Amino acid sequence: ATPSLKEAYKNYFPVGVAVGPRNLTGPEADLIVQQFSSVTPENAMKMGPIHPEENRYLWRDADAIVDFAQKNGLKVRGHTLCWHNQTPRWFFTDSTGKQVSRDVLLGRLKQHIDAVVGRYKGRIYAWDVVNEAVPDTSEAVYRQSKFYEIIGEDYIEKAFEYAHAADPDAKLFYNDYNTENSAKREKIYRLLKKLTAKKVPVHGVGLQGHWSIYEPTRQELETSIRQFAGLGLQVQITELDVSVYPKEHERRAKKPTDTSQLTPEMVKQQTAQYKMLFDTFRKHKRTLTGVTFWNVSDKTTWLDNFPVPGRKDYPLLFDQNYQPKEAFWGVVKF
Ligand code: XIL
């Protein structure tokens, strides 16, 4: 039988995967149960999908994922309670279309967090409470989101307090991407330092881990893990994938790599990158309390068509036929 990620890492950390309702039947469901010990709803618990209108919640997809997890003995990470994306306009406006006040928005945020965290209390062990509150490029510490504009910087601590009140046992995470970029890492570090100093109930930092075969380096990754651990926080890799395209380079050059072919060279580099990442994760097992992949297999990944329309990516450990790739063997054999 094929070895499994969950078996190989049982003395280290749970290995999770982002899923939607479409993954819960057929060959993908089998692969999830065989390989992973945790799931994260890819979209189903975000504000837009779960709370499309005031006082109307759509629980169906989120319930299906949590039920599937329970039935199969998988842990669940909740994702995400407060984010600038996939959040409906109604949240920030009143019935006449006018922007709501700080108090109204705080009330809505509290009500939302109470309802969602409360519904799954005891069944979700960790929540991404605030997602991507720090911008990449600008000098600003805080992303200029509607939450920030209307409430001010304390929307972040409020979100953590509401989540903690709704489920005191859940581990609460601040989650972000590009955390190996030193300028952004510094900003996130200072934000978390401030929160922990104020005794805000934040327990961990999620490094999304949307990486590539060129990035991060071992040193960049270790710096992140060590620095956040220094605040007494757990670290989880929450959205791991290793694109075969050079992300940072493309961003800087503002020019996509013009290929959709998985070359033997890419396969080799991807295997080496995944080995390096998991070597590092194992080494930091006292700090690192979870690693979650963002999607099941290369058959469909959110990186198909993103950031480059029409371009296929191959960022995961299972191929388009759900078979283990070379990188999989690099990760399970150590
Ligand atoms: C992505 C999903 O994978 C897509 O299906 C959706 O269209 C957009 O969001 N950072 C996050 C995740 O925190 O929620 C995002 O998920 C990927 C980037």
Automatic annotation (TrEMBL):
PROSITE patterns: GH10_1, GH10_2. The active site is at E239. It holds the Pfam family Glyco_hydro_10. Its EC number is 3.2.1.8. Gene3D superfamilies: Glycosidases. InterPro entries: GH, GH10, GH10_AS, GH10_dom. It comes from the Bacteria. Residues 1-334 form the GH10 domain. It catalyses: Endohydrolysis of (1->4)-beta-D-xylosidic linkages in xylans. Keywords: Carbohydrate metabolism, Glycosidase, Hydrolase, Polysaccharide degradation, Signal. The keyword Lipid biosynthesis does not apply. Belongs to the glycosyl hydrolase 10 (cellulase F) family. PANTHER family: ENDO-1,4-BETA-XYLANASE A (PTHR31490:SF90), GLYCOSYL HYDROLASE (PTHR31490). This is Beta-xylanase. It comes from Nibrella viscosa.
